[in-house]
Design a protein that fits this description.
This protein has one helix spanning 23-29, and strands at 11-13, 19-21. It is mostly loops. It has a two-stranded antiparallel ribbon with strand order 1-2. It contains 1 helix and 2 strands; from the N terminus they run ββα.
Amino acid sequence: MNDKLTENVDYYLNENGLMVFTEIYHTKRGHCCQSGCIHCPYDYSKKVDPSVPSELQTPWEEDKELEVYDGPIDE
């Protein structure tokens, strides 16, 4: 993959100024990073809770339903 990214093709800046990778970028990358990206062409973003850090997500398994914890969070 070419190391140079093109704005509005490979990524765009959202309303908070953060870089968001596009589906084109993810497809060029060639694999899922399992981070729950908004434009994931591998549908991983539909299988995770984006409010939970990726390290705490259960491993991605095609045939397994995602269970989302909806209880209190200890601080």
